[in-house]
Specification:
The complex is a heterodimer of chains A (193) and B (342).
Chain A (H helix, E strand, L loop, with lengths): L6 H26 L8 E2 L19 H4 L8 E5 L36 E6 L11 E6 L9 H5 L9 E5 L11 H5 L5 E2 L5
Antiparallel strand pairs in A: 1-6, 2-5, 3-4
Chain B lengths: L1 H9 L7 H17 L15 H4 L16 H25 L3 H17 L6 H13 L7 H17 L2 H5 L2 H7 L10 H8 L1 H13 L9 H4 L4 H5 L4 H16 L3 H6 L1 H10 L18 H5 L5 E2 L2 E2 L9 H5 L1 H4 L9 H6 L7
Antiparallel strand pairs in B: 1-2
The chains are: A alpha+beta (193), B mainly alpha (342).
Chain lengths: 193, 342
């Protein structure tokens, strides 16, 4: 025989083989139940900004202030299919502010002016109140403060705006700073299906 | 019908014989002409659809935040595996420090500052532990890969993850400027801390979900430096680790890193660990004073605590030999009588 092995070598091989097998078993075990959708998300039924019935409360803006990123990974998202396309959108205009010469409130809800308002469809040249308006949220400006989400729900709005985690920028921290700060436990990782 | 109503308002104004003609014209020209007078009533009670908005309006795509890009996860895993391979090759085959520093810097920039420190193998230990005990909890594939790959590498090549891949190690590695020797007994005693830390982290991780805490991530002293943000006291602790690290090589890695505890256990059985051998090095002991981590005992690298930084090779006279002719086996070099060159 060409090569002999010392006891030390044999024991080393055995230990290494055992450890590799153990790691392989662990990997297999975890792989079988691995969850591809494992990511932070916001439960709209819990979030105080979007929860129905939470009217007249102060806005909770922890999603924008707590995230470790300079610009939070949370964004407001307008679901156009359920948007009322109002002339005076309560999530766009601060409806309690003074009315300007054009008959519209002078102040806006969004502190970063991230919502764009545009008349759509058949446009009445004489009466702007007779038009539908699309409210488009600029992802590069929105920081997920939730003010528009709080305003767009019953009774004034239809609840078409909600907060969502932008997964392509979310760092997926184990100790998500927003989840730690969320007063309603609305920030969560879903369980595997 | 709005159209009838508008016709009704028009008709009385049209006088005399033209009436019939106008009626016929309206009749044959159809809706196109009539639309000029249509009073459009904006429905207010429901969310309008494409039909009620009219004029060929198409509902825009919801600006839904884009889904998690699988490309980044794959890139992270591939880069981690590649960096582990390159680190092993540089440390064990090339026996060179220069390129290891370059690799360390690159990994610090990518995994640390660019990817901002999450997800990392050190923290993934906790997720793996939770996934094992909690049937409602699972980790994604790439986290499993991040956790397992450095351990597999440790079984083959020792702690090459610490050598050039881990951003927490890298930021400390680059701070080792004036290392002092730590008494060996103190070093060994402090080394037990990482096992205690690992145990504590695992204990808090496997608690029921409501009490669960990710201690390693909570007290990670360097992640705040990668992100330029974080709790003030943690940033100060991170800064303190770096300042101490100028004199005491990689204090977090040596004494606290919980993943380092696992890596040192696995590297005990490494197949081809980082080594200082008489056949390739001078066996003179100069390396022992060059090692800032106290990982050389009796002129041999201690595989469980060696970070494969390559400083020993840099200090080795054999590796300083410049020309290929002068690279001779160390024993031969040591035994050769002084000889005049031709």
């Amino acid at each position: 025989m060409s090569k002999t092995h010392t006891r030390r070598e044999v024991l080393g091989h055995a230990a290494r083989g055992t450890a590799l097998a153990g790691l392989g078993g662990l990997t297999g075990l975890l792989w079988l139940k691995a969850n591809a959708t494992f990511a932070w998300s916001i439960n709209a039924q819990r979030c105080i900004n979007s929860r129905l019935g939470a009217v007249g409360v102060d806005v909770c803006e922890r999603c924008s202030t707590e995230c470790v990123l300079a610009l939070s990974a949370v964004r407001a998202v307008n679901e156009f299919k359920s948007c009322g396309r109002c002339y005076v959108c309560p999530a766009y205009f601060k409806i309690t502010s003074a009315v300007g010469p054009d008959g519209l409130p002078t102040e806006k809800v969004c502190p970063r002016d991230a919502i764009k308002r545009e008349a759509i469809g058949w446009i009445d040249p004489d009466d702007p109140a007779n038009n539908f308006y699309d409210y488009t949220i600029d992802e590069t400006l929105c920081n997920g403060c939730g003010r528009c989400v709080l305003e767009c729900k019953e009774p004034a709005g239809l609840g078409s705006i909600r907060l969502e985690v932008r997964h392509d920028t979310c760092l997926d921290c184990n100790r998500c700073a927003i989840a730690q700060a969320c007063p309603e436990d609305a920030f969560d990782r879903p369980e595997p299906a | 019908m709005p159209r009838c109503a508008s016709l009704g308002t028009v008709l009385p104004r049209v006088a005399g014989p033209g009436l019939l003609l106008v009626l016929v014209l309206f009749g044959v020209s159809g809706p196109a002409a009539a639309q000029e007078h249509v009073e459009y009533e904006r429905p207010v009670d429901v969310a309008p659809t494409e039909d009620t908005i009219g004029e060929g309006y198409v509902t825009p795509e919801v600006q839904r935040p884009r889904p998690r890009a699988a490309a980044w996860q794959i890139a992270d895993v591939v880069l981690l595996a590649a960096a582990l391979g390159v680190a092993a090759w540089l440390a064990i085959w090339r026996r060179q420090r220069g390129w290891l520093v370059a690799l360390t810097t690159a990994c610090l920039l990518y995994f640390g500052f660019y990817r901002e420190g999450c997800v990392c193998p050190i923290g993934s230990t906790q997720n793996v532990a939770v996934a094992l005990v909690d049937h409602t909890y699972a980790v994604p594939h790439y986290v499993i890969a991040l956790f397992v790959l450095p351990l597999v590498a440790a079984l083959f090549f020792g702690r090459v993850f610490c050598a050039g891949v881990c951003p927490l190690g890298a930021i400390q590695e680059l701070m080792v400027l004036k290392p002092v020797e730590v008494p060996r007994r103190l070093d060994k005693a402090l080394g037990w801390l990482k096992w205690i830390y690992l145990g504590t982290a695992l204990y808090y991780a496997v608690l029921p979900a409501i009490e669960r805490d990710f201690v390693i991530c909570r007290f990670d002293p360097f992640v705040g430096l990668f992100r330029f943000t974080g709790a003030a006291w943690l940033l100060m602790v991170g800064g303190a680790f770096l300042v101490v690290g100028i004199f005491v090589g990689r204090p977090y890695c040596r004494w606290l890193c919980p993943y380092g505890a696992l890596l040192s256990a696995f590297s005990r059985y490494a197949w081809r660990p980082f080594s200082i051998t008489p056949s390739r090095e001078l066996d003179c002991g100069l390396c022992q004073s060059a090692c800032p981590y106290g990982a050389i005992e009796e002129r041999r690298a201690v595989r469980t605590s060696c970070f494969a930084c390559g400083r020993c090779y840099r200090s080795c006279p054999v590796h300083h030999a410049e020309t290929p002719e002068s690279v001779v086996p160390a024993a031969e070099l040591a035994g050769r009588p002084p000889e005049a060159a031709p």
